Amino acid sequence: MSNLKRFRAKIFGIVQGVGFRWFVMREAEKFNIAGYVRNMYDGTVEVDAQGEAEEIEKFIIALRKGPPMGAVARMEMEWLVPAEDNTAFRVVF
């Protein structure tokens, strides 16, 4: 039985120009997460992610840590209804 969870997060800090999107992509692949990551015009990064509850929790921990060159100041999250067609993870430009 599937225990899918989905959230959208806005990540603040030093998160652009430091490989943050590619870090998120690698972590999503590691935890079998679907969704997307993209830079926002206000200097934040948006992540929409869906996966099994246990893997989503691990993914969130990784996002809060960020890549070595980045610095996450805070993360605002909202929980969403899982989407049936959400099966892959991508970087959105």
Order of helices and strands: EHEEHEE
Low-pLDDT segments, ≥5 res:
none
The spatial strand order of the largest sheet comes to 4-1-3-2-5
- Strands, count: 5
How would you portray this structure in words?
The protein is an alpha+beta fold. It has a single domain (4-84), classed as Alpha-Beta Plaits. The protein has helices spanning 20-30, 53-65, and strands at 4-14, 34-39, 45-52, 71-80, 89-92. It is globular, with a radius of gyration of 12 Å. The model has no long low-confidence stretch (mean pLDDT 96).
Topology diagram in text:
Blueprint: E1 4-14, H1 20-30, E2 34-39, E3 45-52, H2 53-65, E4 71-80, E5 89-92
Parallel strand pairs: 2-5
Antiparallel strand pairs: 1-3, 1-4, 2-3
